[in-house]
Amino acid sequence: MRKFGLIGYPLGHSFSGNYFRDKFRQEQITDCVYSNYEIDSISGLGDILKDPELEGLNVTIPYKESVIPFLHKKDPVVTAISACNCIRITDGNLMGFNTDVIGFEKSLIEKLTDKDRYALILGTGGSSKAVAWVLQQKGIHFLFVSRKVTGQQDQVLYSDLDRQIIQKYTLIINTTPLGMFPNLQTRADLPYEFAGPEHYFYDLVYNPSKTLFLEKGEAAGARIKNGADMLSIQAEASWEIWNRPV
Fold first, then answer.
1. 57 pLDDT band (50/70/90 cuts)?
2. Shortest CA distance to 128 belongs to which of 168, 85, 160?
3. How far apart are CA 227 and CA 209, in angstroms?
4. What is the pTM of this model?
5. How many other C-beta atoms can be found within 10 angstroms of the C-beta atom of residue 38?
6. 115 is catalytic
7. Is the four-CA dihedral 24, 26, 27, 31 of positive or negative sign?
8. 3-state DSSP call for residue 240?
9. How far is it, in rounded angstroms, from Cα 135 to Cα 72?
10. Of these residues, 3, 23, 50, 64, which one is catalytic?
11. What is d(CA 192, CA 79) in angstroms, rounded to the nearest whole number?
């Protein structure tokens, strides 16, 4: 049996497990299983890797960066951004990839315009690095927004955000878990009153389909989009990676 799975914590409402189980059923793939591996420390990965039938893993919050030392090889994008969300296992060797960049880019461009030249990336975790890489490739200038100083380049604090910044940085991307089920009443602390129809609010959160962050953007007349199709795209990219000829 070919085995695949997801590591992260918590995983109670993860997307990948249901997606792949539905995929296997619909496409009548009977020799594969996909499991959730909820581990409260990245050190738990060692036990998971002892399974000789395990061929691939997806990686989600909070392990996209801390999984790097376990990799034997890294795709150039993983090397560039130090974040991995997909692992292919071949003869005990772990090769790291980042399919977030594929999913985010293909999802983002649906509502992207030539006027979206400045972006705010809310959060500084592993997903934010994939977002930053895509924006950099597209020539979109960006600032990371955080609650505290982390030493990250091009960073501002939420408390720094004012009318001037919000009106200049019209593409606003949430990479944090704020607003994710079950914490539906949480949202990024932005001065939403300065947003307008020229803005594009993108939320990597997909459950619920419309977070408070997106509701605020919609109320201001902004374009809005959640991360649902990003996840589908990156899941299919993972499947392609796991099934490439050796």
1. very high
2. 85
3. 8
4. 0.88
5. 14
6. no
7. positive
8. helix
9. 28
10. 64
11. 35
